[in-house]
């Protein structure tokens, strides 16, 4: 079975030929291509300051018989930087969602773990299938003055990092934009436009939680906006 060996970009990497002695005569290949002997220290393979292009399958063969003695898959990457986390309620009062991403890629697999605490109570954040880096929380009680604390931890084979948000329920309520916005000229009135729109379909209860709309407009030749 093939081992997987994770190493960080810029590291010096030593790969041993399985259980072969240090002074055994061996040949190494990378993705099927022979590696020059100058990279060997005895039977050990020495890679200086690895970069992303050196990810791949490394195989070690016994010198005389060409028996495969050891194989490893080298994956070069970086530990995760602090993840970016955002929480928002676009369907108040049902609940809110949190989404996250990394500021820079790590080039190796990452796992994300999110914990949501409301006061002393741990809440379930149900992962969405799509988009995959998102989960949603149902409100258990409305108009709660207890803060939410959301911690996201990202882990990979080279390290871990986390970020925490603490917020009040009302500060993350942000409806989606209005839908089906249409502007039509008013017949026989060249200086007037009729603008119509609909509530965002994601907003569940516009009766109990009515939305306010703001309109601003300007002729293309002017920089100043007019607000309605």
Automatic annotation (TrEMBL):
GO cellular component terms, A-Z = ciliary neurotrophic factor receptor complex; CNTFR-CLCF1 complex; external side of plasma membrane
GO BP: any one term: positive regulation of cell population proliferation
Q: How does it sit in the membrane?
A: Lipid-anchor; GPI-anchor
Q: Which family does it belong to?
A: Belongs to the type I cytokine receptor family. Type 3 subfamily.
Per the database record, which ranges form the Fibronectin type-III domain?
Answer: 177-228
Which PROSITE patterns does the record associate with it? FN3 (PS50853), HEMATOPO_REC_L_F3 (PS01354), IG_LIKE (PS50835)
Q: Which gene encodes it?
A: Cntfr
Q: Which UniProt keywords apply?
A: Cell membrane, Disulfide bond, Glycoprotein, GPI-anchor, Immunoglobulin domain, Lipoprotein, Membrane, Receptor, Repeat, Signal
- Stored InterPro entries: FN3_dom (IPR003961), FN3_IL27B_N (IPR056621), FN3_sf (IPR036116), Hematopoietin_rcpt_L_F3_CS (IPR003530), Ig-like_dom (IPR007110), Ig-like_dom_sf (IPR036179), Ig-like_fold (IPR013783), Ig_sub2 (IPR003598)
All copies of the Ig-like domain together span 10-60
Pfam families in alphabetical order: FN3_IL27B_N (PF24031)
Its predominant location is: membrane
Cross-referenced SMART domains: IGc2 (SM00408)
Protein name as catalogued: Ciliary neurotrophic factor receptor subunit alpha
Domain of life, per UniProt, equals Eukaryota
